[in-house]
From TrEMBL:
Official protein name in the record: Metallo-beta-lactamase domain-containing protein 1
Gene Ontology MF: a single term: metal ion binding
Assembly behavior: Homodimer.
Alphabetical list of Pfam families matching this protein: Lactamase_B
Catalytic activities: a ribonucleotidyl-ribonucleotide-RNA + H2O = a 3'-end ribonucleotide-RNA + a 5'-end 5'-phospho-ribonucleoside-RNA + H(+)
Gene Ontology process terms (BP): histone mRNA metabolic process; mRNA 3'-end processing; positive regulation of G1/S transition of mitotic cell cycle
Domain called Metallo-beta-lactamase: residue spans: 66-231
Domain of life: Eukaryota
Similarity comment text for this entry: Belongs to the metallo-beta-lactamase superfamily. Glyoxalase II family.
Length: 267
């Protein structure tokens, strides 16, 4: 049986947050060209949390030494951009944001899933935003804070929002964003943990740590209803119950199966 984890919800007062919205800001691609060349750009995703009141309304006090957690939760109250694409796609990014009524100065948090140029090439457009790039978190102006993110220690951004460590593709410091309770269920924006739907034949050749990435991929499939990959369209994860084996009638489980339906990415 697949155990599905959903980000822990905060205890909250009378202002109950609505479900966050997830918008595809730009579908990534990777297209082979002559010789060994590849033309590529990473997916860009805009997460719009719905306001749940000022920081003082949180009933859970920040943990001791939790300045970074408090700062992350505060930054996550505004528009969150997950990856920025490459600098060659600057105008496309600005156009996608404008289409959602968001200016660069409105973005309060940028999450870079890993440090490759096709995913964080436009950080300079967001000098007023806090940045969480891989495992490095800094406030506007370059003040870096320790946060304690690890494979078993997600970072909570707010109700239904978490950052997970998902190592493998770019080494040990890749991260993914988990958005629960959307109209599509739990959406995971995973960078290049998945290059695209159906990438089983290619992802290992691009991975710095295939063993760790295999583990990360399983966690994603065990958790997400929709996956936003690094270089392709969002796809649904379909879990199908398998029949018990004849030799062991008690051996019943669920398998994670990648489906082929492309969802509309807004909740």
């Amino acid at each position: 049986r697949v155990r599905t984890h959903h980000p822990r919800r905060a205890r909250r007062g009378p202002q109950t947050p609505r479900a966050p919205c997830v918008h595809a800001g730009g579908k990534g691609y990777a297209e082979p060209e002559e010789g060994d060349a590849v033309r590529a750009d990473g997916s860009v995703t805009l997460v719009l949390p719905q306001a749940w009141g000022p920081a003082s309304s949180h009933e859970e006090p920040p943990p001791k030494g939790g300045e970074a957690k408090s700062a992350l939760e505060e930054a996550a109250r505004g528009p969150i951009l997950v990856d920025t694409g490459g600098p060659w796609a600057r105008e496309a990014l600005l156009g996608a944001l404008a289409g959602q009524g968001v200016a660069p100065g409105d973005v309060t948090l940028v999450v870079g899933t890993h440090g490759h140029s096709d995913h964080i090439g436009n950080l300079g457009l967001f000098p007023a935003a806090s940045l969480l790039v891989s495992h490095d978190f800094c406030l506007p102006g370059g003040r870096y804070l320790l946060h304690g993110l690890g494979e078993e220690r997600p970072l909570r951004l707010g109700p239904g929002l978490e950052v997970w460590a998902t190592p493998g593709h770019g080494g040990q410091r890749d991260v993914s964003v988990v958005v629960a309770d959307t109209a599509l269920g739990t959406v995971m924006v995973v960078g290049d943990v998945f290059e695209r739907e159906g990438d089983e034949d290619s992802w290992q050749a691009l991975s710095e740590d295939p063993v760790a990435q295999e583990r990360s991929r399983k966690r994603v499939l065990d958790t997400a209803d929709v996956v936003v990959p690094g270089h392709g369209a969002p796809f649904r994860v379909v879990r199908e119950a398998s029949q018990p084996e004849t030799k062991d009638p008690g051996n019943s489980r669920q398998d994670s199966v990648v489906g082929d339906k492309e969802p509309t990415m807004h909740g």
